Structure formats: structure tokens, C-alpha cells
Amino acid sequence: MRVTRMMWYAGTVLATMAMLAASVTAAAQQQARTLHARTGRGAADSSTAERQRAASLKKFRGIAAQLNTTPEALENAFERARAANPKLSRGNFIAANVLANNLGAKHPNITTPAILSGLESGKSIGQTLQSLGLSASEAKQARRTADRQAKDGETRVKNADKRAKAEKSKRLANEKMPDSR
Length: 181
Description:
Blueprint: H1 2-38, H2 43-66, H3 71-84, H4 90-103, H5 112-120, H6 125-131, H7 136-176
């Protein structure tokens, strides 16, 4: 029975990854078409769009590393999920992914699409997790853990950015100083 469960879980993970890869490709193609259609507006709009895209990607950097994916893949998946549910927030999307990642091994029916479907139907994340088989206390604890992981990911990215900025400033200061030998 254990081998069967492991095989089912592995099949579910592989199927999910295949669907994610296919949808990322389709989203990238759609985004390329959209970007191509917008190029007639001028350079100012293009640079604004690029800055907004970079800022949006930056928001997914911390959690993407924890989920073993790329910020681009997460952003594309978020845009697709947002198209299906315009009320979906970035925080709920990230929580759904982290919860599915954390709970998927013990509870194979808890997947990102299942959580997003529950959110789309008007349920909260806690209600959705309870409908997928968790108790109220387990759902609350899982949500707290997911929130903590997302916050830790953001903190790591901010700290890494600060270190990189400090190193760059130090390097530039050393280059400007004349050699006193």
C-alpha cells in the first residue's frame, strides 16, 4: 500500500509539473504577443512596463527559491490564476503554493489547483484546507507556517539585495580612490 501511495504521489507531482510547464510556455507566448502588440505605444510606455515587470518579478524571488521554481514561472502562474479569479491576491496565491508544497506529501489531495479552486468558490484558505481533510487547528497552523516561510523568503531577498548594494558601493569607492603607493 505504501508503494502504491508513493507511486500515486509521484505521478501527481509529475503531472502537476507537466501542466505547470505547459501553462508557463503558453503564458510566455501570450505575454510575448501582448508585448509585441504594445510596442507601437512608444519608448516611455515600454520602459514603464519593463520597470513594473521587474518589480513584479522581484516580489516572487524569495518564495520561488523555496518552491524550487523561477520567479518568472510563479508570476506567469499567478497571472493565469488571476485571470480565472480576479479577486485572487498575491499573498493568497503564494500561500496556496507554499501550503501545497508543505502538505502535499502527507495529504495528496492538497494541491495548488485545489486550494485555488476553493478560493475561487469564495472560501477562505482555512475553509478550503478543512474541506480538503485538515482539522481547523491543522489548517491554522499550516497557514501560519506558510506565512512565516513567505516572510522569511522576502527577508532573505531584501538582505541579499542590501549586501549586494553595499558591496557595489564599496567596490565603486575603491575604484575612485587613487592608488597611494
